Amino acid sequence: MSQLRLLPSRLGTQASRLLAPHGVQTFSWCSRSSGPPASFASSRVGGGSSYMEEMYFAWLENPQSVHKSWDSFFRKASEEASYSLAQPQGSVVSESRPAASSRTETSKLVEDHLAVQSLIRAYQIRGHHVAQLDPLGILDADLDSFVPSDLITTIDKLAFYDLREADLDKEFQLPTTTFIGGSETTLSLREIIRRLEGTYCQHIGLEFMFINDVEQCQWIRQKFETPGVMQFSSEEKRTLLARLVRSMRFEDFLARKWSSEKRFGLEGCEVMIPALKTIIDKSSQMGIENVILGMPHRGRLNVLANVIRKDLEQIFCQFDPKLEAADEGSGDVKYHLGMYHERINRVTNRNITLSLVANPSHLEAVDPVVQGKTKAEQFYRGDAQGKKVMSILVHGDAAFAGQGVVYETFHLSDLPSYTTNGTVHVVVNNQIGFTTDPRMARSSPYPTDVARVVNAPIFHVNADDPEAVIYVCSVAAEWRNTFNKDVVVDLVCYRRRGHNEMDEPMFTQPLMYKQIQRQAPVLKKYADRLIAEGTVTLQEFEEEIAKYDRICEEAYGRSKDKKILHIKHWLDSPWPGFFNMDGEPKSMTCPATGVPEDTLTHIGEVASSVPLEDFKIHVGLSRILRGRADMIRKRTVDWALAEYMAFGSLLKEGIHVRLSGQDVERGTFSHRHHVLHDQDVDRRTCVPMNHLWPDQAPYTVCNSSLSEYGVLGFELGYAMASPNALVLWEAQFGDFHNTAQCIIDQFISTGQAKWVRHNGIVLLLPHGMEGMGPEHSSARPERFLQMSNDDSDAYPAFTQDFEVRQLYDCNWIVVNCSTPASFFHVLRRQILLPFRKPLIIFTPKSLLRHPEAKSSFDQMVSGTSFQRVIPEDGAAARAPEQVRRLIFCTGKVFYDLVKERSSQGLDERVAITRLEQISPFPFDLIKREAETYPGAELVWCQEEHKNMGYYDYISPRFTTILGRARPIWYVGRDPAAAPATGNRNTHLVSLKKFLDTAFNLQAFEGKTF
Fold first, then answer.
1. Which spans of this chain does the record mark as coiled coil (predicted)?
2. pLDDT of 839-868, one tens digit each?
3. Spelled out in words, what is the top-level CATH class assigned to the domain 597-859?
4. H or E stretch including 803?
């Protein structure tokens, strides 16, 4: 019969103490049978050692009397103790037990070895809590002054593990989970503690034991525990000193020349420059050719000067208050701008391309943008493992902990269609956020704790120890290359000058800044150290400073000759060959966007079939595919098929297409089905779009994580890398783009004006009032139109190239297509234009299956193009002089209007014209339509509420083109706070009401505009 005992041994006590902070329960049991019992009790273990002894001697008598895990455990413990214990041979070793004194001695030795192993593990898990990370020595980097009781002092440690001072000089076998012994397999306890404190409790704090991969943990232990690993040659130390000189003297130079200018300098973390250069150097040695960086504004100018190696005169001339802008756009402040530079890495003598992505004051907004750009560069190079292209992200501590987009970006790091195969994150830990104390700014111990969600190792390091920083950065770069995973370097530093150079930090952090005023700069401390050890002389150090000061002075002199700002010098994503040498489009024409009918037919046939053999699809999908085949025979397309044909025709022309967003593979409304799933084989899928032609461009369609901010930023960065790709992001519902508003406001709407950065990203935003509630109806078109930069009061000159010129002059294009053919053409036009502009498309929901929302091949074949305005083509158009009312509208409401007009018998008296392109406003076509019906009242009809939708945008533009003598009246829902109702009956009542008004030909008689 099995006998089960809880074993609260001293080992159990140690295990419990070690694991309890991590929420782990320890179970100990012993069975007299050959295997574990069917069930057993559990508790947190603790107490004396008698049970442990009893089980140990039971094992000595018969190793099969305990579970095999304990058998293995006691075998290993006995071997490591180097004690001459009888090895069990067979079922019985001895007829009688050893003497009591022998049992106690044996047990004590085993337990002492186990205690030492627990002590080693405690340092590995919690040593970072007692590391000396704060250069100022006044704050706890983890916001907790508590020191783990098993790591306080040597005496406390010994007592915690039931060891004595006499044990300090005993030799102990080292476990395989530590490398502190180097080539030695045993060490004295005194030496074990000394080496552990040297590794885990000095200027480097390591968080990695939460990683659930033994190989990765062993790799990190070996890199930091092995004796002598942090040794630098004299040449390496001199290089580090020279880089610190450049970093610090650059800031000093700016402070001397422009003492009253904001520059968000790097003082207090000057070591960041050699840190970044080390990551780049090490990565270059391992084959990286392209590094893409993102960072906030602190230290950006220094990074541009000393890492990217932008010409210093270009930077200095930005400080000239008389500088004039030569290029288009508003520009941005100098510490927001980016840069692209190809150069030789002098350490590796290899070519390296460095780009720093422009970023607004929304500190972490650039994170997903950098990741998307990196992913695109890897894709175009065929770099599936990230061995040629990598990203580095620099963060501030407060933003890293506080900004949700950091979490969103981390969760993209291991998704197949979004991974960049590891990013090196460098956190500039100022230990403050503007004026906010970290104890008021975050709930987590460290600002970097968000990285634990993806098992990224976190290396905390005191930024006033340059050699420790450089070693950590070298290991971080090697980790990224070895495991293709994210890693975080936490530079614990301080801000010498406050939030910016104009700030007074003593208002809010007096004690901190009193200490900072007494703090010697890192350059002085490190130079004194190298001079003392004889690595450099004082004269050599002073000559290095003088040399860089001369470089800055000479560049300053040259900068005075630059009176015009060429913002293109700050471009972070050049597109070689796409524009003329002067940066202008090669033409102002756009070819017809139609394609040959045989191309449409071929795409349609593939879209309605399964290219793989023995592939079983869902029965419901079979009906959908048969429906597609039927449409092809009838030469018609619905919305999904029009999209398929737009994508497929571009793929044939060598244009890569990428569609991303929540549920885009199937489509939120189950209309797309671009990825087919085998019903019998798990994870066997087929993408018919990639089976169109043998030499086509690749098509990527990928469901995203449940993120808008992070994913839209990612796709923006992806579109930034090349103009020869159609990159689309689809919101699950158009309303949900508002959680990505930062990307829309700071990058998409203003990107070209601020940073001369063309971008052709397409936003697909499902939109339409259908009684589905205020979060599933409106893509908020009024917001996009308000941010459009075309002038409502400027009467345009209708030149021959007016249509394309107008698109070039706008900041983005806003459309609401009413037909599948329009959708097809506008997607193709996006690529055929000689420039790139963001495209906002309000896509339908109910129209996806509306029987009238179909288009003929005749509207899509060669020679056809996108129609900005679709005029009336029915009975009213044949007798325009009899038309009493001309209704302008856009999108889905057109079908409601047509149906109501027919039911009231007003087909000849009311004309309906659709605006497919809303911004830039089609002044020329609107003028032509209004003149076609000179006797008609003009009405704008929309299904959105009056304070939303399009009316406030179109109304002044109608006035500009037609004058006040011919006003345009509003018909639609009344103003409201919420964009839509969730009550179906209320929705239908309001719909009926405004449709009645739209066709009441006496509604506006006698009214003044």
1. none
2. 999 999 999 999 999 999 999 999 999 999
3. alpha beta
4. helix 802-809
